Amino acid sequence: MAELTEYSDWEHQEDTASKRVTDVGSSQQLYIDYATRVDGQPVFVGKGARGLATNANGWLVYNFSYDSNGNIISKQSAIGAWTNRATLPYS
Predict the structure, then answer these.
(1) Residue 13: inside a domain
(2) Of 26 and 55, the one with more pLDDT
(3) What is the pLDDT of residues 34-69, one digit of tens each?
(4) What is Dmax (Cα atoms) for the chain?
(5) Per DSSP, what are the bridge partners of residue 10?
(6) Bridge partners of 6?
(7) Is 89 part of any domain?
(8) Across-strand partners of 71?
(9) N or C: which end of the chain has fewer CB atoms below 10 A?
(10) Cα separation of 62 and 78, whole Å?
(11) How much is the average pLDDT of 17-29?
(12) Are the beta carbons of 52 and 60 closer than 8 angstroms?
């Protein structure tokens, strides 16, 4: 699993098919996991307080699902540890 630490966030704008970059502040860290996708679309995105260990609870984790054309069809969230992102109870 590829992980990337950054301090910005993106949001998909479905009606315009564009992406927006927004500063998430210096007190947060952002992890992105593309899993097996090779099209640049993330499967998991996690936000946590700067310094929060990846195995500590307190991460806001998003799980994205895509259709066969690569369009987002669902975005679900859960709170938990980044290292448990594949098994968190998303809703």
Answers:
(1) yes
(2) 55
(3) 998 989 899 999 999 989 999 999 999 999 999 999
(4) 37
(5) 21
(6) 30
(7) no
(8) none
(9) C
(10) 7
(11) 61
(12) no
